[in-house]
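Sanity check. The docking grid for iron/sulfur cluster depends on where the pocket ends up, so I'm generating a full predicted complex first rather than guessing from homology. Inputs follow.
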Amino acid sequence: MRAEAGKRIYSATDLVNYLGCTHATFNDLRQLVHPVVFPEDDEQAKLLQEKGIEHEKAYLARLRKEGRTVAEITSEGSLGDRVAATHKAMQAGADVVYQGALYGSPWHGFSDFLLRINGTASRLGDYAYDVADTKLARTAKPKHVIQLCVYADLLGAAQGVEPPQLHVVLGDGRMASLRTSNVRHYYGVARGRFETFVGTPPAASVAEPCGHCTFCRWSDTCTAEWEANDHLSLAASIHRSQMDKLRANGITTVRQLAMMPATARIPNLQADTLSRLRAQAALQIARRDTGKNQHEILPPSPGRGFERLPKPDPGDLFFDMEGDPLYEMGLEYLFGLVHDDGGQEKFTAFWAHMPRNIEFLYSRNRLNVAISRARCLSVAFASPRLLEVPCNTIEQMQLVNTLCWAKSYSDAYTASRGVI
Ligand code: SF4
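Predicted complex below; grid placement will be based on this.
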């Protein structure tokens, strides 16, 4: 969000952030009055940005190659200039408007692409535009859809008809499309809540860790607050509901949790759960006070955790499958195998050198190496997505079938023996 000529202007990111955490919006509003300088993006964030721009340019090149006329809206000039240039390009009937600027007070947005659709009557004529954004992700996510809804809302006002579809051009080049009417109402309610919040913001707000923190530009600020206040979330493995129950009973810091008498009880919190949380907090406080790490060895619990694993055997193999989603077109088949080699752990790497080289992954010989050498247990770590690879040939189906068989076998085994 930003302030221009005394008026606030909001963006799709503001709405996405609000839906992730209202405290982020509270901070955003405060920052309009008390500006904050944020640290520079780290290397990972820069790499993601570069990859995002590459992906966007690749899609633009694809549209041009298909012979579509493209009107590119320059990023120079005021918002008003860019919006006017976008409307002009739409009126001229360009097949694609790249970096179109959209505005309808108090919202604005810059859609990656506006795609012309013929046969839909609009204020422009017998055609209209849909919105499309490029994303590196492999599947469309709700936050992408919310962003597109903001653009669709603004575009609908500009062309006099709601864009029929929202499109996400995914990192692997596929397009995920959604009917605007299927999410219109959800978006309307969300936008209304946001506008109410920013219209009458609360006088105070407290940061609570949540799933949005990983993506939030306020994470350094909030982390510093939590450390200064000895926030309960600093206790390892504590859950939100547990914090709520502790707070309701006057326990608001990790130190207070650590100092609770062993006989103390918290309503609706199991005694052994409280005991575990208290012991964990005590270890952390001891580390804080003495500078030395402390640990406590818990007694084995029959039938739980590592107790459910078979006894170690020299023939055990630990097989790992990794991927690099940022590699061009994605690289999914980076295998590693650890086995005992005369008393030493030996790591063997099997790396695919071609993206999407499923023959490598599903090679019967390599699977045979991974599975058949185990004398007692073979542990495989893998994404379930590996079982969902689209097959273009019968041969590929047969190869994938081998891994599916291993998964079915493993499922049947765990069902009969209990899940570890
Ligand atoms: S870091 Fe987490 S708690 Fe803080 S504003 Fe962001 S999402 Fe909210």
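Relevant for the grid: The pocket of iron/sulfur cluster is lined by residues 20-21, 23-24, 27, 207-210, 212-213, 216, 218-219, 222 (CB under 6 Å).
Also worth noting: The chain has a mean pLDDT of 87.
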